[in-house]
Amino acid sequence: MTWTVLSRNGEMAQLNVSFESSGCEYSDSQAPCTAFNFHKSVRVSVNVTDGESYAEGQPQGRLNFWAPPLLVRGQLYLGSAFVGGSKIDSVGNISASPKTSFGGTPIQVSGSEVQPPYDTYFVAPTTLGYSLSNFRYAWENISLVNLNNPSGVSGLGPSGYYDYYTGLALYMSGPEYPIQQTVCKIASGELSNCRYVLFGTSLGQFFDTGDSSFQLVSTNIALSPVQTQPATGSGSNLVLIAVLAAIVIGGVGGAVILKAARKSSR
């Protein structure tokens, strides 16, 4: 996955967002694989202050490519989920994270390698969720859905590790292609308003993928405190630093497997 800033006019930035998935799909262990290569690009307009995005003249919800810097706790609107076609801004819990290595892979910053670990904070969604032990998810229908027992419930929606100094996503969840799954509201450890409904996230309708994660590979934004100042207000002035750069993000598993499973189900 790549996203590149093309231009900016006031609060609006023009991005080019591309996704590519390639590999070999097996129908069973004995048959030869079928090679595939999926590629899609879309022009996206983004308000760099609030993260709202637009593509092909239609609103796409908030993007989770970057977030405010210098956060250690609290909540923020990380991105958007679409439940039954209705947009819900996904609230995320912020937690300070120890220095994170992401497998020890260095990040290219303005052509030079920056070695891990990196100073980050983690944001986990709190608005929507489903049961991990008993759930229905697209082509799967596992056991009985026990919606009266919230144990083992995980949040749905955007999540990720963000650079502490810039707010740039170092490791984030990818766009969720809208598919049917069990969605509930989570509040104080309780589930409510559960339904089996079409669920996706921002830009998901453009990219045939889900359950994927993306790791930062290259940027021209300094991942250090050198170019930042203490945050004031919402910190939206510092978000501008994060968006005005060319970003390259590498896919980490998930997308190819899910694509194969969808095609097999058909």
Q: Keyphrases for this structure?
A:
mainly beta; two-stranded antiparallel sheet
Radius of gyration, CA atoms, in whole angstroms: 19 Å
Succession of helices and strands: EEEEEEEEEEEEEEEEEEEHEH
Sheet with the most strands? Answer: 18 strands, mixed
As a percent range, the share of strand residues is over 45%
**Percentage of residues assigned to helices:** under 10%
- State the secondary-structure class: mainly beta
Number of helices: 2
Please state the average pLDDT score. Answer: 78
Spatial separation of the terminal alpha carbons: 26 Å
Q: Judging from the principal axes of the Cα atoms, what is the shape? A: globular
Uncertain regions: pLDDT < 50 for 5+ in a row? 133-145, 227-246, 250-266
Topology, number of strands: 20
How would you characterize this protein structure?
This protein is mainly β and 266 residues long. Helices cover 7% and strands 51% of the residues. The chain is built from two helices and 20 strands. It has helices spanning 236-243, 255-265; strands at 2-9, 12-25, 34-47, 52-55, 58-62, 73-83, 86-96, 107-109, 112-114, 120-125, 128-131, 136-137, 140-141, 153-156, 160-163, 169-173, 179-187, 190-201, 213-219, 246-252. The strands form two sheets. It has an 18-stranded mixed beta sheet that branches. A two-stranded antiparallel ribbon has the order 12-13. The longest helix is centred in the C-terminal third of the chain and has 11 residues, at 255-265. The radius of gyration is 19 Å and the shape is globular. Mean pLDDT is 78; it is low at 133-145, 227-246 and 250-266.
